[in-house]
Specification:
The chain is mainly β. The chain contains no helices and nine strands. The N terminus is likely disordered.
Length: 127
């Protein structure tokens, strides 16, 4: 097949010439469990994320799951870069309290394909 209606082999089913499915990853730069001091705060470490494949540009959003106490939170990401980072916070911890949650990044490409990836993290107040 040739002409304007031809799909180039390099375009693959996802367009953009790359022909690869949208994928994302998220990593935590600190230890797990993560020890903190104080009832509330923001850690120095961050979650990093990146996206590959699909059809750029991408949009990202961060979220938290499995957080029954509500004492952990995530700062919202509003970004269109293929990689970046986001921070979390804790609030209202008592001494020796441990809370855990899954921190997620959701990536959507320009044709609406969406993937979500997450990392489980425990945070313990030690002082």
């Amino acid at each position: 097949m040739s002409g304007a209606g031809a799909l180039l082999a390099s375009d693959g089913p996802y367009g953009g010439g790359g022909g690869t499915a949208l994928n994302a990853s998220v990593t935590w730069s600190g230890s797990n469990p993560y020890n903190v001091s104080g009832a509330s705060g923001v850690p120095d470490d961050v979650f990093s994320y990146d996206a590959v494949g699909g059809v750029p540009p991408y949009t990202f959003s961060s979220s938290i799951a499995s957080n029954p106490s509500g004492k952990l939170g995530v700062f919202t990401v509003s970004d269109e870069h293929a990689n970046g980072s986001f921070q979390i916070f804790w609030n209202g911890f008592t001494l020796n309290e441990t809370e855990s949650a899954t921190f997620n990044i959701t990536v959507q490409d320009s044709v609406g394909t969406t993937v979500t990836r997450g990392r489980f993290l425990s945070i313990k107040r030690t002082s």
